[in-house]
Write a structure and sequence with these properties.
Layout: H1 3-17, E1 27-32, E2 41-43, E3 46-49, H2 51-62, E4 67-72, H3 77-82, E5 88-92, E6 102-103, E7 108-116, E8 133-137, H4 143-149, E9 154-158, H5 161-169, E10 175-179, H6 180-188, E11 200-211, H7 219-232, E12 237-238
Parallel strand pairs: 1-4, 7-12, 8-9, 8-10
Antiparallel strand pairs: 2-3, 5-11, 6-11, 7-10, 7-11
Amino acid sequence: MSVSLRNALFLSIFLAWGPAPAWAEPLRFVVDTSVSLPYAKFEKGELTSGLSHQLGLDLAKRLGREAVFVPVARKRITAALERGQADLICGYASAWLPGPFQWSQPVAQHFELLITRADMPAPQRLEDLAGQAIGTIAGFRYVTLERQLGLKFSRDDGPDAEALLRRLAAKRVAHAIVSRSYLDYQRQVLGFDLALHQPLLLEKTDLRCALSLKSALPLKQLDEALQAMHKDGSLHIQH
């Protein structure tokens, strides 16, 4: 067989196969750099462990792809997805992340708690918090308090949830907002023992994956993978 004939044969086979399938490409997950364990641990700027890391690995494996994690500051997440710098972010609600995204079926439930130091009066209703400084995370939306308190919602922003607990312990604020799983992790794993009133449940929210419109991954395929993970018990994250 001549060289030209062999090359032509190889070319015809390549064209018959078509371009490389989407599953051969890495699946790029945005990870919010403001979160910490149990959700994410960063070392030298790279995500190395945590619930977000494990979910990304498991989901990518289910889809037959390699997981790549793209650390992004909270305020830049929408732009990163809109520009196609990553495929998706998981563990968010549409109310938190405005943008023209496709939203998957739920991957977890988020329980948002208001915690109050035990040496301060415990709020009996949300209106009791009007005008009081509340520890919050910069760039994060708190839909329930925004709706209930409006302009009387007094935010005291910190960079992350760990900073909020430090402010509580230092008596810089009387209240802070954290997730149930984060508070449980701090108490059970890291020994956080500041005396608190019974937390007040602010909101229970289904969290989903926001899929970039520029991603080659079809939403149907993403949902099918998540559904399979639900069925076999590998998707059981609680926030």
